[in-house]
Design goal:
The complex is a heterodimer of chains A (540) and B (292). By secondary structure, chain A is of the alpha/beta class. In chain A, 33% of the residues lie in helices and 23% in strands. A six-stranded mixed sheet of chain A has the order 6-7-8-3-9-10, with helices on both faces. In chain A, strands 16-17-18-13-19-20 form a six-stranded mixed sheet, with helices on both faces. Chain A has a four-stranded antiparallel sheet with strand order 2-1-4-5, with helices on one face. The mean pLDDT of chain A is 90. In chain B, helix 2 runs parallel beside helix 4, helix 5 crosses helix 6 and helix 6 packs across helix 7. The chains are: A alpha/beta (540), B mainly alpha (292).
């Protein structure tokens, strides 16, 4: 029997003409792992919030949601609260209390359980999630990934039957994100928990899911078993970007019948189906270096006298007019490097030159005028006003490569992640920087928005702006960068032309590179792989 | 981890209220001497904080308080000497010493108290009284660092946008105010997410219980029972007038009647109870280790 039945569900927010959802129907079986996908604004989050009564938005609702055959309006308050668990994308904001143990106990306290019962369940969950080590810690001391695992654990202690996850990994780095997804998969496989997850990182989540649901403009676009659903939407250019690299290669070369989904399947598909007489694509020409835009010379930095060094003899050069992407793990000091370059922190040793001049020689804020600009990781920190119009008041936005006019009357916080990114970029660009520094610009963006963002950055480069981008996102870096660098323990350990860089890495690299390693030499992006496969041709 | 840290906070709390409370309401020098000895012994055994510095400070405080009283208080029959036409009396000096012993011993009690009852234990004790404010405090403790962090990040982002002008105080204040005003919006916005998260986890669906990670074990019952019994005995003796003591006009003599002796014995036991627990625990470990 279906555990969740959504029947002809329509929803309109108050004072809005267009409905956010129209006539959506599907069923989820007990124990299913279902992924809910769609572009920003397609109604994913609205749909998910309608499945849980406590967080249902206000508005006009038609149709019905049934949980185990019963309308969710008929469920008792307790059943509704405790049998359906919900985790959203902001790790910090959804924790309630200050201590890890208290956060785990919070839901059970609401359930009115006695202390010894709570103790048992909390202990059980802490073991399952491997969080005994930080059980006594304060929530504020945890990393983003740990916080999100804690949020999941504190929902799981209530032993829900269905878990609703609204982009749970959007704010996490790739390693924390895979860990989170792996934990959800474990819950699904071992406890046969029904999972409905909104997720942009399909490369990892898609191969493990049972069902796919695609929404488009508030309507159900595709729904079904994962592989058949992938096949049916593969032909749609709007959704192709969301799918894993293996699928995109399959869609482009149009060969064979079984569509590969994982890296492993992709490798087998390529090895079985295509020749390998041509090993590599012609090398890209490295453009001659111009003058330097940014130069770090043996820079050492630490936050406090007694703390460890965050930057340890960092040296590198950024040439004018290039895009350099710096990759590296969490807490390796990448953001600190940007803050130092922007003059926000002062290193205790070493030298930083911006356009050939030392930072301290820029007097009276000249560093921020027609010189450099930093777009921070949390773009909300850029906003100070209550509407987009006010926000852009003293900004010259005539030369922007994108349009924000449709959002002028909205509050910056009400924009979607991608729109916030663009608004922040507009504000940052109003300083007319010649050097633009981006800190994790793709965090929480869906595949299409990411591609649009990359296109905007390329336009800026064409306009002569030098770009330094710190990111976790290898796929994004592989498409955008002229050069890529690996940041490790406070210094840059390797730096090379993008294709050579990723072809030389074996773990920290794109899925296409992992798929073609050994067989071809420098295929890094889907486009590279498709070009190579077409050159080689189908195996006779 | 010392032995007392593993006791239930409620038992520990009651103990300290009893031992320090009696010291605060009694003027009897023997009681205060016992209180001082018990408190210092406990502090020394637990090796909390800076030992020498604390003892030196306490000695200084004790001497100062002792000397100050006779300078202002001239009651008492036994004049030691005359200073600026004012008699300095033995009684006033002894009264000063008595009061100083009270202050210093209570300070020692609270030093040990604050090292055992950490902030979350205190919150737990508060939660026993009323669970809702305790939850609110816990939420506030989560929110404050989050707010400060975000304010700092916002400030840095604005600096990198060149929004702060150098040497212009008015501009600086205006920027700080804008940052503060957006932080208020941010707090409200994020409050909604927290409220959703609370509702999604069933907050307000029924009677809440208050979970504590602290169990109540036999040792806690023993500590609680002994504290109440011994403090009750001393209290009863005080109520019956058995511990009356006067410094003026002359220092009263301590008569060895039953009530007084019983109160002394009870308070001595109470005063050295935690030190006994700590020493017993240490000896147990030594014994266990010697058998390996």
């Amino acid at each position: 029997m279906a555990i969740l039945e959504i029947k002809d569900l329509s929803f309109t927010y108050p004072k809005q003409g267009i409905s956010a959802l129209s006539g959506v129907s599907f069923e989820i079986e007990k124990g299913d792992f279902a992924l809910l996908c769609g572009a920003t604004g397609s109604g994913k989050s609205t749909l998910m919030r309608l499945l849980k009564r406590e967080i249902r938005p206000l508005g006009e609702l038609k149709g019905e949601v049934r949980f185990e055959g019963k309308s969710i309006d008929e469920l008792s308050e307790r059943d509704s609260a405790f049998r359906v668990g919900f985790v959203t994308q902001k790790p910090e904001q959804q924790t309630v209390t200050d201590k890890v143990w208290h956060e785990l106990a919070f839901g059970l306290e609401n359930l009115g359980l006695r202390s010894d019962e709570i103790r048992r369940r909390v202990a059980e969950m802490a073991c399952f999630f491997g969080i005994e080590g930080w059980f006594d810690k304060k929530v504020s001391e945890l990393s983003g990934g740990q916080k999100q695992l804690l949020n999941l654990a504190s929902v799981m202690v209530m032993q829900p039957d269905v878990l609703l996850l609204d982009e749970p990994t959007a704010q996490l780095d790739p390693i924390a994100a895979s860990e989170f997804i792996a934990t959800v998969v474990k819950l699904n496989r071992e406890l046969s928990l029904t999972v409905l997850m909104i997720e942009h990182r399909l490369e990892e989540a898609l191969p493990v899911c049972d069902k796919l649901i695609f929404l488009k403009d508030g309507a159900l676009y595709a729904f079904g078993e994962m592989r058949s659903c992938v096949k049916s939407i593969m032909r749609d250019s709007e959704f192709l970007n969301y799918l894993p690299a293996a699928v995109r290669i399959f869609a482009a070369v149009e060969h064979g019948s079984a569509c590969p989904v994982t890296v492993n399947e992709g490798r087998k598909y390529i090895e079985a189906g295509f020749d390998d007489s041509i090993k590599s694509l012609p090398e890209r020409e490295t453009p001659a270096h111009g003058s330097t835009a940014l130069e770090f010379k043996d820079v050492w930095f630490r936050y406090e006298r007694n703390s460890g060094d965050v930057l340890r003899g960092l040296s590198f050069t950024l040439w004018e007019g290039e895009i350099l992407c710096v990759l590296g793990g969490n807490g390796s000091g990448k953001s600190t490097m940007l803050a130092c370059a922007a003059g926000l922190h002062k290193p205790y040793s070493g030298r930083i030159n911006v356009f050939g001049k030392r930072i301290k020689d820029y007097k009276n804020q000249m560093l921020y005028k027609n010189c450099l600009a930093l777009m921070p990781q949390d773009v909300q920190t850029v906003f100070l006003r209550n509407s987009v119009r006010e926000e852009l008041e003293d900004c010259d936005i005539s030369a922007l490569p994108f349009d924000l006019a449709p959002y002028y009357d909205m509050h910056p916080y009400d924009l979607s992640g991608g729109q916030q990114q663009l608004l922040a970029l507009a504000k940052v660009l109003s300083c007319k920087p010649r050097l633009l520094m981006l800190d994790e610009p793709t965090k929480g963006l869906d595949a299409n928005t990411k591609a649009e963002f990359a296109a905007i950055i390329r336009k800026l480069k064409a306009a002569g702006v030098t770009i330094l981008c710190v990111t976790h996102d290898v796929e994004f870096a592989s498409q955008l960068a002229d050069r890529a660098a690996m940041f490790f323990l406070g210094e840059i350990t390797s730096c090379d032309e993008t294709r050579r860089f990723f072809a030389a890495n074996s773990f920290y690299t794109t899925s296409v590179s992992r798929m073609t390693r050994g067989r071809y030499e420098n295929a890094v992006t889907v486009e590279d792989a498709v070009a190579l496969l077409k050159l080689n041709g189908v195996r006779k | 981890m010392k032995a007392l840290d593993s006791f239930n906070p409620l038992a520990v709390f009651v103990y300290f209220m009893a031992s320090a409370g009696i010291a605060m309401f009694s003027m009897d020098p023997v009681i205060l001497l016992l209180s001082m000895l018990g408190a210092v012994t406990l502090f020394v055994i637990r090796r909390e904080g800076r030992q020498t510095g604390t003892h030196l400070f306490s000695l200084f405080l004790f001497l100062t308080l002792t000397v100050i009283n006779p300078l202002f208080q001239h009651n008492g029959r036994t004049v030691l000497f005359v200073l600026n036409d004012n008699p300095i009396t033995l009684e006033a000096l002894l009264y000063g010493a008595d009061a100083a012993a009270m202050v210093v011993s209570v300070l020692y009690w609270f030093r040990s108290f604050s090292s055992i009852i950490t902030s979350d234990k205190l919150l737990y004790l508060f939660g026993l009284l009323s669970p809702k404010p305790a939850l609110m405090i816990s939420m506030a403790l989560r929110f404050v660092p989050l707010f400060r962090m975000q304010a700092k990040r916002t400030d840095m982002a604005q600096r990198a946008l060149g929004k702060y002008k150098e040497d212009n105080a008015i501009d600086f204040i205006r920027m700080k105010l804008s940052v503060f005003s957006i932080m208020v919006s941010w707090a409200l916005e994020n409050g909604i997410i927290t409220a959703d998260s609370m509702a999604a986890r069933g907050y307000g669906t029924g009677r809440r219980t208050c979970f504590s990670p602290y169990k109540f074990r036999p040792q806690d019952a023993l500590l609680l029972g002994l504290s109440l019994m011994l403090a009750g005995a001393v209290g009863a003796a005080m109520a019956l007038g058995g511990l009356e003591f006067a410094f003026y006009p002359t220092v009263s003599k301590i008569s060895p009647d039953f009530l007084r002796l019983a109160a002394y014995i009870a308070y001595a036991l109470l005063s050295f109870l935690p030190a006994t627990i700590e020493i017993g625990d240490a000896l147990k470990w030594q014994y266990l280790r010697s058998r390996i």
